[in-house]
Amino acid sequence: MPKRLTVVVSQGQSNNPAKRKLEEDIVAALLFEPGIEVTIVPHLYDLKPDGPGIMGLQAITTDFVVLSWLYERAARWTLDRTSIHGKRGTTLLVHESDEDDDDLLDEPEEESKLRVIDSRSMPNRMIYCIDLRVSNNLQEYVDEVKRIHREVSTSVVELGGLNGNGSAGPTPQQLARVAQPTNDTAIKEGGELEKPIEAIEPFRIEEDAKRRWYPVIDYSRCTNCMECIDFCLFGVYGVDKVETILVEMPDNCRKGCPACSRVCPENAIIFPQHKTPTIAGSDEVAGGGLKIDLSQLFGKPQEDEKSLDAAVRERDEQLLLAGREAVGTAVGVPKRQAEKDSREKDELDDLIDAVDELDI
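User: That's the sequence. What structure does it adopt?
Assistant: C-alpha cells below.
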C-alpha cells in the first residue's frame, strides 16, 4: 500500500482570482488521489508562530509537500524557523533560472566554511517545497505531487509483503482493518464510496493572518558570523542557548527594509516578499562556487549605489522614521566591508562594475 503523503496548499496573500483558482483546482485534483491528504493554510510567511496554522504543520511528522507562493528556499527556511524541520526534498518543478544554476552549485568552493546546518541533525523525513509561480499549468503540479508520492512510497512498497515477524503475508490485525476500515472514504462492495463525493473536503486551517515582514535565515549558507546582529539596530536578531544567530523578534523588523540582507557575506538572509528575487530567496544567483561578491548583485535601489551603501541608507531611513538619529557607517558596518573601497581595483572589481552596469 502506498505511503500516505500530506500536501499543504499555502494560499496567496491577496484574493487574486487567478491565484485562487489555481489553488482550488490543485486541491480538487488531489483530493481523490489515493494516499494523499490535502491541507489548506493561509500564506505560510504570515502565520503566527503560536497560531493554529503553524501548530497544524508541526503536527505533521512524516514526509510532506508544501505548495506556496514563495521561492522554494524561502518556503523551506520559513518552515524551519518555526521548528518544522526535515531534509530537503528535490522537486523537478522549478524556475528555469534555478535549473541553470544547478551547475554552479557543483563547482568546488575556494575555502571550506562551516555552515550552521552542519552542526544540526535533521529528522528522517523529506519536505518538498514547490513555488506556485513556476507554472500556470494545473497538470504539472498534480503530476509532480504524484511523482513525489511514488518516490516516498518506494521503500514502503518494497517492504509491504512483510509483517512484524519478518514473514510474508499480512497479520490478523491488518486483515481486520481491511475488512472493517475506519476511514470515511472507504469503498463499499460494488465500488461505492462510504462518504458521498460532495462531502469529501480538505483539512482547512483557519487563521486571521496579517501581512508580516521579517528576515528568514538560510542556515545552509549562514556561517554564524553575527554581522546581521551588529548591523540591525531594531532588536530583530538574537542568539540561542548555543550562541547561534536567530531571528528573535521578527515583528521588530521595519516593513520594507532589507538592509541586513545586503550586508550578509553569505547571502543567507531572505525577505520572502521582497521584489528582488535574490533577496526573496531565488537561487538564480547561487552561492559557493561563484568567484565574485554576490551581494553586489542584489539589486541597487539607486543608480550607481553599492550594496553596502544601499544597506546603510535603508537603515538610516528606518531610524529616522522611528524617531531616532541616523548613524551612517559609524555603527555595525563590518570592517571587512568598510575597507573594500579603499583597495586598489583589480580585474575582479572591473568584472563586478561591468555586471552592475548591465542592471540585471
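The beta strands are 5-10, 36-41, 64-68, 87-88, 126-131, 203-204, 216-217, 237-239, 245-247, 269-270.
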